[in-house]
Each structure stands twice: as C-alpha cells, then as structure tokens.
Amino acid sequence: MTKCFSSNFAQHMEGMAREKHNAGFSLKYMDKHLEEFDCFCRDHFPNKESLDKELVETWVYHTESKSVQEIQKRVRTMMHLGNYMLPLGIGAYIPKNTLKQAKSEEPHIFTDAQLEEFFQLCDGFKAVKYPPYRHLIAPVMFRMIYCCGLRNSEACHLKCCNINMQDGTIKIYESKGHKNRMVYMSEDLKELCRKYNSVMATMNQGREYFFPSSRTGYYNNTSVCKLFDSILNQTSFHGKTSKKPTCHGLRHTFAVNSMRKCIADGEDFDIMIRYLSRYMGHSCPQNTMYYLHMVVTLVPDPSFAH
Question: Which of 74, 108, 221, 269 is buried most deeply by CB count within 10 Å?
C-alpha cells in the first residue's frame, strides 16, 4: 500500500512508490527510506522544493549508521526518486554510487596476550538455562573465526554438512560477492570441533547449523557481537585500547598474523598473499594487501618496508 507523505515532495514520492510496486518491485528498504526522507525534508528543509544536490547529499549522510550498504540504499532511493521526476520535466539531482564514503577506521589488532586472555574467558563460560548452548558455542565459534579468518556471517551460517571432520575442511557457500570457497582447519581446531560436535549431537539431535540458536535456528551477527562484547568486557584490556576490539577484528588479526608469519619464516610473500586472498574470500590480492601497512607497523623492518 502506498504511503502518505506530507513534505513538498509527497506527490512525487507517492507516484514513484506506486509505479515501482505496480511494476512488481519489492523494495522494502525504499519504503522505509522514503518515510525517513519525508520527515527529514519537513524538519530540516521545509521550504525546499527542488531535489538538488545539497538536499540529496545532506540526507544521504544524515544517518548514524556507518554501514556502506546503508549509504548505498539511501543513494539508490534518491536515484529512483530523481529518475521518476526528470521525465515529468522537474529538475532533479541524480546521485551516483560513487558518492563520498567516510573512511573506515582501522581495526584493533589483538596481541598474542590479548588473544590468550580472551579465549581463556571463552573457555570459562558457565552453562545457563538460556541460551542453552552459549558455553559450548563461544570457545569454538570465536576460535574458528580467528583461526580460519572467517567473517562473522560465514560462521553463523555454517551448516553441519559444510564441515568435514575427517579432513578438516570447511565449505563456505554464497559468501560476500556470492563466492564459494574451502578453508582448512588446523589439527587442534579440528579436534576441538570434533569434541564440540559430539556434545552438541546429544543436546540438539538433527541440528542443521553447526552453531545453533535455540530461538532462530542459527546465530545472527547481532547475537555474535553481543556474545563477543560480553566476553570482552571481562578482559583486563577492556576500555584500555585506542580502538574498541570487535569480533570482526579477529578476522583482521588472522590476516595480519598470517603475513607476520610469512615474513618471519622467509616465505615467498607474493605467493602467500595470493593464497591468503583466496583463503579469506577476497575478490583480489589487492584487497588483502590492505593489511600490509599494519604488518609493517608491527614488524618495523626497514628492508621489508621497501
């Protein structure tokens, strides 16, 4: 059902939304953002009648979210509205997907001592009635994210059938960029997963997901981050680092430590970076090279820096 708007752009937004939905488009994000844009225009630009660059770009970045996906959805909403207005003979600014994006802050890279303390706290989780599997999942999930360099979402969506306990392989399907890949577990991680799987098989028979949630079937990213923060808050370094450690920082730390090991072992860096890129599911080795300056900072070797 078409929403009723009240800003100076109400007629155009209602017409555009109606046209899109009649054409069969299901753009739930656009409905939400049109409502937000309508309120924004009323509150901040009540007299503005032109969909100009000032209005569009101000609204696009008028959000507390730092998510690139959120910014892109707001850009696309404005593109749809502008493209609807232009054929009507109404001037409109059409933003591009290349609009400026705030440079993301570099992540916190865990020290070996911080990793050791964090995982010790994971192992010390006590069993509670709800959520019932938390004490079993935390030590394994966070070690898997770190040791295999997984994205949080990849760990969340892992199914039991995706993990081969015999050869220690994990198949990642439809990850970022719709890519599939296979990663390999170390012997100690493989043994940890075997023990965990054996216990979970008795507590949750026939489960589909490797890290099950009693409420939604599998953990989502929000739940994982909350679980991570609940452990982080108990560490001795909580609140004492220049940047707040995050669960995704475990993946970043995996990348940095993999490069550090390559340097220390004197391996061929060009070969390693290509392998690491595929292992982490990056679209190209250049994306993996993002971590290089962090390695140089941690391993201040002038000869390597050149």
Answer: 74
